[in-house]
Design brief:
It is a single chain. The protein is of the alpha/beta class and 169 residues long. It has a domain at 11-48 and 55-100: HAD superfamily/HAD-like (Rossmann fold, 3-Layer(aba) Sandwich). It has five helices and seven strands, in the order E-E-E-H-E-H-E-H-E-H-E-H. The protein has helices spanning 34-43, 64-80, 108-116, 131-140, 154-168; strands at residues 4-7, 14-15, 29-30, 47-53, 87-91, 125-128, 143-146. A five-stranded parallel beta sheet has the order 5-4-1-6-7. The protein has a two-stranded antiparallel sheet with strand order 2-3. Strand 4, helix 2 (64-80) and strand 5 form a beta-alpha-beta unit. Helix 1 (34-43) packs parallel to helix 5. The longest helix is centred in the middle third of the chain and has 17 residues, at 64-80. The chain is globular. 34% of the residues are buried.
């Protein structure tokens, strides 16, 4: 079975300071060392999967293609370093538009990834910046880690890898 690190997008991968919705390329600023951190996780044998709520689509603020363009930009930046994110899942719904089972804190998108990539949930992590990220992780059996918005996750990534190496011995 595979192991994975799931990442929230806004606030973990990219800086969302001062903006609630990130959908314009000009507003898509990566957090410090995130490319290097993702590459470190990939080199350690982790799949890296993004799970993101994108409720601005349902609200008509932006379109699905806007989110997909930012995903392409992110992948291109990683490609230069020789790695890609294995998958990017996003929920286009908003609570104002009715119930949905894929929007965090629900865990459908994580569960889809677990099944698709044959991931062992107990050896996997979700790094997020909100309670709903933690709830989605816990519901799916993944270890949730909450960090401050827009922080460098370098130390968290190192700890995940160290814990994994200790569990092998």
């Amino acid at each position: 079975m595979n192991k994975a690190v799931f990442l929230d997008r806004d606030g973990i991968i990219n800086n969302d300071e001062g903006l609630y919705y990130i959908f314009r390329p000009a507003d898509f600023r990566l957090n410090e060392e995130i490319i290097e951190n993702i590459c470190t996780l990939k080199k350690a044998g982790y799949l890296v999967i993004v799970i993101s709520n994108q409720g601005g689509i349902a609200k008509g603020i932006y379109e699905k293609r806007d989110v997909e363009l930012l995903n392409i930009i992110l992948q291109e930046k990683l490609k230069i370093k020789g790695h890609l994110i294995d998958e990017i899942y996003f929920c286009p719904h908003h609570p104002d538009s009715g119930e949905c089972i894929c929007r965090k804190p629900n865990s459908l998108l994580i569960e889809k990834a677990l099944a698709r990539f044959n991931i062992n949930a107990s050896e996997s992590y979700f790094i997020g910046d909100s309670k709903r990220d933690l709830e989605a992780a816990e519901t799916s059996g993944v270890k949730g880690i909450i960090v401050p918005k827009n922080s460098n996750i370098k130390e968290i990534c190192k700890q995940i890898i160290e814990d994994s190496n200790q569990n092998k011995n």
